[in-house]
What we know:
It is a single chain. This protein is an alpha/beta fold. It has one domain (2-161): Dihydrofolate Reductase, subunit A. It has 4 helices and 11 strands; from the N terminus they run E-E-E-H-E-H-E-E-H-E-H-E-E-E-E. Helix 2 links the parallel strand 4 (40-44) and strand 5. The radius of gyration is 15 Å and the shape is globular.
Amino acid sequence: MTLTLIAAAAENNALGKDNQMIWHLPDDFKRFKQITTGHYIIMGRKTFESFPRPLPNRTHVIITRQEDYKAEGCIVVNSLNAAIAACPQDEEVFVIGGGEIYKQSIDRADKIELTKVYDTSPEADAFFPDIDPKKWELAEEVFHPKDEKHAYDMAFQTWLRK
């Protein structure tokens, strides 16, 4: 299995506040959809509950401490280990948040697909963990300047474990 973290984070590693994203970046959404469609996606319960409905064409694996939590059509587990075990072992699997799940999984990940959002350090209550340059190598970076649909400059980064 290739375990990949996928996120959009500000320069201060901010991900979101009050279970909401802090920006609207359509090309980041497109990239997320393109990369994760057809795959298993692992997330915390709060991240799952931030969606209006399950994301189409993906298998949702939800981590929660709530023993009786149910989500129709989704796999519900109580730990990161159980989430990883519930996924196919011969495919790429994506961790999509939130901050606590990223923190638990970064040392087990093989790859990070990060949208780095520049020129903003918003107030947040969820953060992406620091990427240690001793453990990770920036393999690809594609800059995306701000435009009429994107309020911020950003870069699509692919990090690989050294």
